[in-house]
Write a structure and sequence with these properties.
Elements: E1 2-8, H1 14-31, H2 38-42, E2 45-51, E3 57-58, E4 61-62, E5 66-73, H3 80-97, E6 107-114, E7 119-121, E8 124-126, H4 128-147
Parallel strand pairs: 1-2, 5-6
Antiparallel strand pairs: 1-5, 3-4, 7-8
Length: 148
């Protein structure tokens, strides 16, 4: 589940450039109720794209907007509440990892859903049913290992 962060160079702190994806990953897993699920954790990845400040616009003018874009299967964050939880959490992550003076309205979060079978990795187009089965198996294996 790719997360793309696009920001003007110098808006994320140095630590923010390193920490934003791990923290957004944690925010996604929490919003989805999948914290600790090894399977889902392993399929969340992303990139941080730092652009020259003059290359980012909002409202037709140059602005220091930080954009977080999440792409996931249509079963991911399936409710309005779970999507809202991710938007709020992602915005807080950005706020904590940007320089002083970054305005909340200059943080944008966008969630895109792939249709059934339109998301994959390893050469496999995964269905929602197959993803749920893999996540369930991962959770059951972890519970079994913990019980030993």
């Amino acid at each position: 589940m790719p997360i793309t962060v696009t920001a003007p160079r110098g808006v994320l702190t140095e630590a923010g450039e390193r920490e934003i994806l791990p923290q957004l990953t944690a925010a996604l897993l929490e919003a989805a109720g999948l914290t600790g699920n090894d399977f889902f954790t392993s399929i969340v990845g992303g990139t941080v794209q730092l652009l020259e400040p003059g290359r980012i616009y909002a409202g037709g003018v140059n602005r220091p907007v930080v954009m977080v874009e999440l792409k996931l299967p249509d079963i991911g964050l399936a409710t309005v509440d779970s999507r809202a939880a991710f938007v709020v959490a992602a915005s807080r992550v950005v706020d904590a990892l940007t320089v002083d003076g970054h305005r909340a309205e200059d943080t944008w979060v966008n969630i895109l859903n792939a249709p059934e079978g339109g998301w994959g990795f390893g050469g496999t187009a995964w269905t929602g049913e197959a993803l749920i089965a893999a996540a369930t198996a991962s959770a059951e294996a972890a519970a079994s290992a913990a019980a030993r």
